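wait is this the right file?? whatever heres the structure
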């Protein structure tokens, strides 16, 4: 049996046995970028909003929300309960998916423009399909009582818009994609 792999923040997780059902336990190999890996026992149980994980350091609750990325792959937004800690774009790779992911790595992907700080979208100055030039204003965001223009880092075409005027966003939230 091949292991199931996922990535959460700076951690690579390799489930040595596949988690199944509303509760259970499994051995997991955890590797932090640039560090050695360690094997731990993880127990879980689902609830209405997500799951509880019991790790060597304690019991932690997480809310899970399914989302699709720009490539149409299903991922998850994972929010730690009782904390502002959240992980966006968590993908679970089934056995064999790594080979598929490597096969299309030569394709040019869109440049994701993300919020550098929390704020409110005041104006969106572009629309999907519009050509933009380097340094062109894309949208105006209010943060810390100041209006900030978000500009294009390069020439491109607006592929996706993730926000609209009046919407509040957190740090790292996707704003738009340039192709």
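ok assuming it is, sequence goes like this
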């Amino acid at each position: 049996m091949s292991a199931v792999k996922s990535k959460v923040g700076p951690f690579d997780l390799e489930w040595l046995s596949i988690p199944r059902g509303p509760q259970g336990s499994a051995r997991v190999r955890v590797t932090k970028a640039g560090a050695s890996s360690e094997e731990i026992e993880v127990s879980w149980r689902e609830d209405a909003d997500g799951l509880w994980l019991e790790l060597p350091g304690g019991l932690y609750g997480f809310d899970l929300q399914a989302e699709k990325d720009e490539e149409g792959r299903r991922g998850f937004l994972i929010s730690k309960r009782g904390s502002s800690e959240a992980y966006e774009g968590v993908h679970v790779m089934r056995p064999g998916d790594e080979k598929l992911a490597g096969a299309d790595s030569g394709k040019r992907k869109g440049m994701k423009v993300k919020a550098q700080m929390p704020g409110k979208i005041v104006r969106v100055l572009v629309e999907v399909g519009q050509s933009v030039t380097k340094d062109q204003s894309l949208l105006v965001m209010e943060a810390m009582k100041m209006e900030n223009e978000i500009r294009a880092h390069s020439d491109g075409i607006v592929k996706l818009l993730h926000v609209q005027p009046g919407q509040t966003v957190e740090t790292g939230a996707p704003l738009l994609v340039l192709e």
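Residues 95-108 have pLDDT under 50 and may be disordered. so i think its the right one actually
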